[in-house]
Amino acid sequence: KESVSTAKVLVENLLAGHVASDNFGPISAPYLFHTTSDAFLEHVKTDLGVTVIRDLQRTVLRLYGTKLGVIAAQDAIIGKLEEMKSETHAIILDSVTLGPALSGGFRLIVASLGKDNVKIDITS
Predict the structure, then answer these.
(1) 16-27 per-position pLDDT tens digit
(2) Pair (34, 66) in one structural domain
(3) Fewest Cβ atoms closer than 10 Å to its Cβ: which of 18, 45, 106, 117?
């Protein structure tokens, strides 16, 4: 009976995979759950031999592979997110510049850089 329960626990752990995490907890960056990350995640699968499954209910990535492969995949994901942070530029608009941005300036930026590369975040 103990061997059956031990086997059950092992199978459950195997099926659960490893939840990708960094020093702060599970990695749940929105980029990783969008189709724009498909090529990167395929690269992780091909180069590192680790299958990455998006768990949309829990907003986590589940990694399946060898221990070393999973660690390498996790490091690659963290590295990609760090790289993306350095590629992000925020422009803070004041009351003078907000008007022109909303009346065509934002559209010009989107036309130049592409709609997947630009986002507007309005906070008070």
Answers:
(1) 789 999 989 999
(2) yes
(3) 117
Alpha helices in 17-117 (DSSP H): 38-48, 67-86, 95-100, 106-113
Give the SS3 label for residue 21: strand
d(CA 69, CA 45): 9
**Torsion on CA atoms 74, 79, 80, 85, rounded to nearest 10:** 130
Which candidate, 55, 62, 51, places its Cα nearest to that of 20? 62
From residue 39, how far is each of 15, 35, 45, 46 by CA, in Å? Answer: 24, 8, 10, 10
**Residue 54 shares a structural domain with residue 84:** yes
Asked if 96 contacts 51 with a C-beta cutoff of 8 angstroms, the reply is: no
d(CA 15, CA 45): 17
pLDDT at 100: 86
